[in-house]
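Hi R.,

As promised on Friday, here is the backbone we talked about, encoded as structure tokens. Could you run it through your design pipeline when you get a chance and send me back a sequence?
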């Protein structure tokens, strides 16, 4: 129970920080990550907030999980709903930076916070985010490498978002270059592993030793 509580706390902390990362990068106006270029482009073209489009696209992506036979977890559903909510909340709370130095500070903070947040919600082990599951599902079904599939998807959403009016710039490149190494650093430190069972007690004095080999694996009633 305590372990599950820890995993849930880490999951929701990670999702909150991921929303903060998105808000910082959008507010910097120096270029969004590929998916948020799409979300911002949809917001500018069709209305609704960026956070609302994060939720809508997350739900649509999860529909694609069905033919890919991906199974969502509580982390998947929470990611689909809460990241957009937190992004809109922090976009409302954060002051808009005007000086170039402040905008770059927002951008650098966004990438660092994004790496930490990714390690948190993935490390909680309660299900991948909708977009992560899309990538792994296509890679598994199409027998392509995850890197190739991820690159293809992100280039597609980046191009679509740019055509819709989303912001592409130095921040887009910085995020693409830095998020992998940052996740590589944060994820091992934040991965919650299940407890291993206690070491089984040895045989009592005078007891016959347990059978080993095929005899130990045989089911009752089988030769």
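Update: got your reply. Pasting your designed sequence below so it's all in one thread:
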């Amino acid at each position: 129970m305590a372990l599950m509580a820890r995993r849930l706390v880490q999951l929701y902390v990670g999702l909150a920080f991921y929303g903060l990362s998105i808000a910082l990068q959008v507010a910097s106006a120096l270029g969004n990550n590929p998916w948020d270029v799409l979300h911002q482009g949809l917001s500018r073209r069709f209305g609704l907030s960026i956070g609302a489009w994060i939720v809508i696209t997350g739900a649509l992506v999860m529909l694609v999980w069905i033919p890919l036979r991906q199974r969502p977890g509580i982390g998947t559903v929470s990611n689909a709903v809460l990241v957009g909510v937190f992004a809109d909340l922090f976009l409302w709370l954060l002051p808009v930076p005007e000086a170039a130095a402040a905008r770059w500070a927002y951008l650098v903070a966004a990438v660092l916070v994004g790496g930490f947040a990714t390690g948190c919600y993935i490390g909680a082990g309660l299900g991948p985010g909708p977009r992560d599951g899309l990538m792994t599902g296509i890679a598994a079904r199409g027998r392509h490498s995850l890197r190739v599939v991820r690159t293809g998807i992100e280039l597609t959403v980046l191009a679509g978002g740019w055509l819709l009016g989303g912001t592409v710039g130095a921040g887009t490149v910085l995020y693409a270059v830095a998020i992998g190494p940052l996740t590589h650093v944060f994820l091992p430190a934040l991965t919650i592993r299940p407890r291993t069972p206690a070491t089984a007690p040895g045989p009592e004095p005078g007891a016959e030793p347990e059978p080993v080999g095929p005899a130990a694996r045989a089911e009752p009633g089988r030769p």
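One thing I noticed while checking it: The chain has nine helices and no strands.

Thanks again,
M.
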